[in-house]
Task: structure prediction
Amino acid sequence: MNRACAAVVAAAVALTMQGGCTHDFFVTQIAATPNHGRDIDTSLEADRAERERLGGDHFLRVQVGPPAASIGLWVFEPESTPRGTIFVLHGVADGPFWMRDKARALAKHGYRAMLVGLRGYGASTGDFRGYGVIERRDLVQVLDELETEGWIEGPVGVWGMSYGGAVALMWAGEDPRIGAVVTVGAFSSMRRVVPQVMTLFFPIPVLFTSDEECQTIIDNAADYAGFDPDDASPEQAIVRTSAPVLLIHGDWDWIVPFDHAERLHAAAPGHSTLDRLSATGHLGSYIDFGGHVGQATNEWFDRWLDAESSP
Result:
C-alpha cells in the first residue's frame, strides 16, 4: 500500500473511531460550500479579473437572498444576435471554471451563454449548499435582475452537469420562464444521492453507519444549511415544469447511478426524454468523448428554443 492510500485508510479509520466527530464531518462535507467562511472580493477590480480569468465577454454580479449571497456570472456572446439565452450550471465538486468550455460551445452555436457560479462557488459568496432548494430561489432572482437590465435575449434554457443538472430541474419546477432543460448526470433526490456518494468516497466510516443514521446526517446537514431535505427533490420538480427536459446519463455512472435518470424520466414521461450513454461514467459524460453530449444539447435547444416560434 502506498503512502497516499495508507493516509486515506488511516483517516477513515480515525473518523470511524471518533463517532460523533464522524457525524460532524459528514454534516460539514454535505452542507458547506468551497467558499464557506471565506471573504470573497466583490470589488469592480476583482470582477474584471474574474472576467479575464475565464475568458468571458462580460462578468455580472447579482445580489440574492435570503440568505444573502452575491452571485457571479460570466457572459459568453455569440458572433451574431443570440438565438436565446442559456444558463450553464456546474457540479458539486468542480465550479464554473470547469464549465467554461461548455459555455463557449453554446455561444459558438449561437446562444448567449450565462455561466453561473452557484452560491459559494467561484466568485460567488455563500456558506451553504441547498441541493437546489436555495439555489432555485437564487436563480429566479438572477433571472429577474437580468431581464430588468436587458441581458436576456430570446427564450431561456438551462444546461446543468450533475449537481447543476439537479438545480436546473429544481429551478424549472419553480420558474415558468424556463423554456427547455438539458441535464447530464443529474440526481433525483438529495436523500438518495448523498448516501451513495458517502459510500463511494468514505466507504470505511459508512460501513459503521446505518441507513437511519445516514438519513439523520442528511437531516442535520440540511438543518445546518437552512432548508428541508425532503424539498431537495428534482424528481418532484420535474413534474411541476412544462419545459421539455433532456436527461443525458451514463449507464456506467458510479457517482450518480443511472437509475436516478430513470426515476426522473418516469416522473415526467410526457415532457422528458432519456438519452442513455452506453458504457459511460460520470466523468466520461462530462468529458464528452465523441461529442454526443454537445450535439444532443445543441439539437435539443435548437428544437425547443426557437426564438421566432417560442412564446
About this structure: The radius of gyration is 19 Å.
